[in-house]
Specification:
The chain is an all-alpha fold. It is built from two helices and no strands. The chain has one domain. Helix 1 runs antiparallel to helix 2.
Length: 98
């Protein structure tokens, strides 16, 4: 799901930017319409290429995000354990020392 949604977002954004440039040139004059056609074809190529690259790399990005979250949760779990242990020690000391 992450791979599909991220590749869709990137390819749509890239295609929209290039198509926007193509429409701009197309509206200037009819001869420049050929430039718009070329730019629009380039937009399709850029969109497909960015989709492919994003799909290839999205798995690695997802894995690195999950690894970071896992490390973060281990740190939080360790800190909570230390706080519980310190609370237990302080309770025992309170009972022993009155």
């Amino acid at each position: 799901m992450f791979i599909e949604s991220s590749s869709f977002a990137v390819s749509t954004g890239a295609g929209s930017l290039v198509v926007g440039a193509g429409v701009y040139f197309l509206t200037l004059a009819t001869p420049v319409g050929w430039v718009g056609l070329i730019v629009t074809a380039a937009a399709a190529a850029v969109s497909m290429l960015s989709n492919s690259v994003t799909k290839k790399n999205a798995g690695d990005v997802y894995d690195s995000i999950m690894d970071w979250l896992s490390s973060f949760m281990k740190l939080i779990t360790t800190l909570v354990g230390v706080l519980i242990l310190l609370g237990f020690i302080s309770s025992v000391l309170f009972v022993l020392l009155g």
